[in-house]
Design goal:
With about 600 residues, the chain is an alpha+beta fold. Helices cover about 35% and strands about 20% of the residues. A nine-stranded mixed beta sheet has the order 17-13-14-10-9-18-19-12-20, with helices on both faces. Helix 12 crosses helix 14 (about 475-480) and helix 14 packs antiparallel against helix 15 (about 490-505). The longest helix is centred in the first third of the chain and has 21 residues, at about 135-155. The protein is elongated. It starts with 7 loop residues before the first helix and ends in a 14-residue tail after the last helix.
Length: about 600
C-alpha cells in the first residue's frame, strides 16, 4: 500500500535544538551540601566517644582496595552503611563508623612491577608498539583468536573463560601506564614503580571522595592495612597468635596455586586469569625405559641410560585413574612436543616429561616434606627430546599384562596439561582405543612415524573393569555405539569419555588384580596408595586450568609452608553454630540469613 502524502503541517515542521536547562537547582543543592559538610567537620559530628549513658551501635564496611580511585560500586554499597548509621544516630544511639583501605596482597605489587617493566622496555613516557594502527590491529586479532579458543575449550560454566582484563576492558591490550594516566598526572606516574607510593597516594584521595559523598565516618579511626601500619600489623599478629594458642591454626606443607615470579601463593585476587581455580591431584605412573632397540633413532636416550646407570629412567604420564593401569597397552607422546630428561633428587631417578610439568614438580614434595628436587623451584635437565625422538621406545609399564609396551604417537595431546605423556588404556579410555586402533588398521600411518608392526599389532584390549550394560571394555562399547572411527571425532569422544568414566567409577567392578570383585570407587584409592608405596607412582599437582598471576606468570602448584585456619575443626564449628543460633546473643536481623 502506498504511503500517504505528507500534510501541510508536516511539510512546515521544523526541529529546534533544545534549550539548555539551567543548573540553579543543582547548584543550590550542592552549595547546601558543602555548607552542611563543613558544619559536620567543625562540630566533629561523627566522632564517637565512649558514652555509658547511650546505646552503642557500630557500622563497618569491607575495606576497598587502594590500587586506584573508589568507583560507583563502592558508592552504591556504601549507601546501606551510611543510611543505617544516620538512622541509628537519629534514634539517639552512639554510632561508631570507622573506615579502612586495603593495601595487602599482590595487586599493588604486581601493578608496580608491570609499570616498571613497561618503562624499562618502552621508555618514560612509553612508546607502545600498538600506537601503530597496523600493529594494534594485529595484536587485537591475536587476542580475539586466543579468547575464542579459550572459550571453545571451556566446559565448566561455573568458571568464566574471559580474563579479568578482557572482562573489564573488552580487550587484552591494557598497559599499566595508561591505567594510571586516567587517575594520575603524567609526570607523577614513574613514582608508582614503588609499591609503597600507592599506599601514600590513593587512600588520602579516597578520604576526600568519601567526605564529599557524606559518609559520616569517624576519621580518627581510619587506617590502611599491611605492615606499613604497625598497629594493624600488631592486631593481625595478635589474632593469629591467639588462635594458635587455642589450636585453631595449623602449620604444615599445603599444595596451593603458586607464582614462581612473585615467590608466593597466588590467591584469587592476585590473578589476571584463572579466578576460582584450585589444585588438581594427579598420579604420575612410572613407565621404565628399557634398553633401546634403535640406537640411531634413540641415540640421545641411549646416552642418558649409559651415563646414568644408577638412575632408572621413566616416562611419567599423569593420570586421574590409577586403577586402570592393569589395562596398559602402550604409551603416547606428541610427535611435535618438546620433552626433557629431568633429575628427581628425592628418588635418584630421571623423569621424561614436559618442561612445564617439570617446573611444577620442582615445587612439590615427594614424601614427609622432602621436595622432589634439592632446591625449591629448580630442576636439572640432562637432555631435551622432540616427541618424535621418543617414539618406538620400549617401556616396562607397572601392573600391565604385557612385559613390554612401546611409545606411540597421539596427535591430540595438549602440552599445556599434565606431563605431555599419556598412558594408554584402550579398554576404558575411548581416546586411547580409537588412537591405537587407527595405528593398528593403517600400515601407512605406522610407517609415517617409523613404527614396526611388532610395536603395535600384538597389543589387544585388556578387559579390567566390568560395568553392567557396558561389558568389560566400556571404551570399545561406547565407540561402537556412537560409531566413533577417528581421533578427530572430538564431540563424540568427549561424550563417550564422560559416560565411561562416570559409569566406571560409580558402577564398575574390578575384574583383575588383588582387588578383583571390589567396586572401582573402593579399589581406586587403595591401588593408588599401593603403587606409591611400591615406587611405581607418585603424586603430582597442577592447577585445574590455566592460572596467570598479575605479573603475567603462569602459575604452578607448590607445596609451601602455610599457617592455615582449621575451619572444619568440630569444636570450633559447633561453637559458631551455638552462637549464631542463640537468639539471646546473636541477632541476624533476618531469619533467612540463618
Amino acid at each position: 500500500m502506498a504511503a500517504a502524502p505528507p500534510t501541510n503541517e508536516m511539510e512546515n515542521l521544523t526541529i529546534e535544538a533544545p534549550v539548555p536547562k539551567g543548573t540553579a537547582k543543582r547548584d543550590a543543592l550542592r552549595a547546601n551540601e558543602i555548607a552542611v559538610q563543613k558544619k559536620w567537620e567543625e562540630m566533629r559530628a561523627f566522632e564517637a566517644n565512649p558514652d555509658p549513658n547511650a546505646e552503642s551501635f557500630m557500622v563497618t564496611f569491607p575495606y576497598p582496595y587502594s590500587n586506584g580511585h573508589l568507583h560507583i560500586g563502592h558508592a552504591f554499597s556504601l549507601t546501606k552503611a551510611i543510611f543505617r548509621a544516620q538512622f541509628e544516630r537519629h534514634q539517639g544511639k552512639n554510632v561508631l563508623f570507622p573506615f579502612a583501605f586495603h593495601c595487602t596482597g599482590m595487586p599493588i605489587q604486581a601493578a608496580a612491577n608491570k609499570l616498571k617493566s613497561e618503562i624499562e622496555m618502552y621508555g618514560s613516557p612509553p612508546q607502545f608498539p600498538e600506537e601503530d594502527p597496523e600493529v594494534r590491529a594485529k595484536m587485537e586479532a591475536e587476542i580475539a583468536a586466543a579468547k575464542e579458543a579459550k572459550a571453545a575449550q571451556n566446559t565448566d560454566k561455573s568458571k568464566g573463560s574471559k580474563t579479568k582484563l578482557v572482562q573489564k576492558t573488552g580487550t587484552g591490550i591494557v598497559r599499566q601506564w595508561n591505567i594510571l594516566a586516567k587517575m594520575v598526572p603524567l609526570d607523577e606516574i614513574p613514582q608508582f614503580v614503588d609499591p609503597y607510593h600507592w599506599l601514600m597516594y590513593f587512600p588520602p584521595i579516597g578520604v576526600t571522595h568519601l567526605k564529599n559523598f557524606g559518609v559520616g565516618v569517624d576519621w580518627r579511626r581510619a587506617f590502611i592495612t599491611t605492615a606499613v601500619n604497625p598497629y594493624y600489623d600488631a592486631f593481625i599478629r595478635w589474632q593469629f597468635e591467639t588462635l594458635r594458642a587455642k589450636n585453631k591454626i595449623l602449620f604444615g606443607k599445603r599444595n596451593n596455586v603458586f607464582s614462581l615470579v612473585d615467590g608466593q601463593v597466588c590467591a584469587d585476587h592476585d590473578r589476571s586469569e584463572g579466578e576460582g581455580v584450585g589444585p588438581q591431584e594427579y598420579v604420575l605412573i612410572k613407565l621404565q625405559v628399557l634398553p633401546v632397540e634403535d640406537p640411531t633413532r634413540h641415540a640421545k636416550m641411549a646416552k642418558i641410560l649409559e651415563d646414568n646407570k644408577d638412575k632408572p629412567v621413566y616416562l611419567v604420564p599423569a593420570t586421574l585413574r590409577p586403577e586402570t593401569m592393569y589395562g596398559q597397552t602402550n604409551c603416547f607422546v606428541l610427535p611435535t612436543g618438546e620433552y626433557g630428561a629431568y633429575v628427581v633428587d628425592a628418588t635418584n631417578e630421571i623423569f621424561i616429561m614436559s618442561a612445564r610439568s617439570a617446573r611444577g614438580l620442582s615445587c612439590q614434595t615427594y614424601k614427609d616434606g622432602q621436595g622432589f628436587t634439592n632446591e625449591f623451584g629448580k630442576i636439572t635437565c640432562l637432555e631435551t627430546f622432540s616427541g618424535d625422538e621418543l617414539l618406538g621406545l620400549p617401556l616396562k609399564a607397572p601392573l600391565a599384562k604385557y612385559d613390554k609396551v612401546y611409545t606411540l604417537p597421539l596427535l591430540t595431546i595438549s602440552m599445556s596439561k599434565g606431563t605431555g605423556v599419556v598412558t594408554s588404556v584402550p579398554s576404558d579410555a575411548p581416546d586411547d582405543y580409537v588412537s591405537l586402533k587407527a595405528l593398528q588398521d593403517k600400515a601407512d600411518f605406522r610407517a609415517k612415524f617409523g613404527l614396526t608392526d611388532e610395536m603395535v599389532l600384538p597389543y589387544e584390549v585388556v578387559p579390567i573393569i566390568s560395568i553392567e550394560g557396558y561389558g568389560n571394555a566400556s571404551a570399545v562399547f561406547m565407540c561402537e555405539k556412537l560409531k566413533i572411527t577417528s581421533p578427530n571425532d572430538k564431540a563424540k569422544l568427549t561424550q563417550a569419555k564422560d559416560e565411561t568414566y562416570l559409569k566406571g567409577f560409580t558402577l564398575g567392578v574390578m575384574e583383575v588384580g588383588p582387588h578383583k570383585g571390589k567396586k572401582v570407587s573402593e579399589a581406586k584409592p587403595i591401588i593408588k596408595e599401593e603403587m606409591i608405596e611400591a615406587g611405581q607412582a607418585c603424586l603430582y599437582f597442577e592447577p585445574e586450568s590455566r592460572v596467570v598471576s598479575r605479573t603475567n606468570d603462569e602459575c604452578v602448584v607448590a607445596a609451601t609452608d602455610q599457617w592455615y585456619l582449621a575451619y572444619g575443626e568440630e569444636s570450633w564449628s559447633e561453637a559458631v553454630r551455638n552462637h549464631v543460633l542463640d537468639s539471646g546473643s546473636f541477632d541476624a536481623y533476618d531469619p533467612k540469613a540463618l
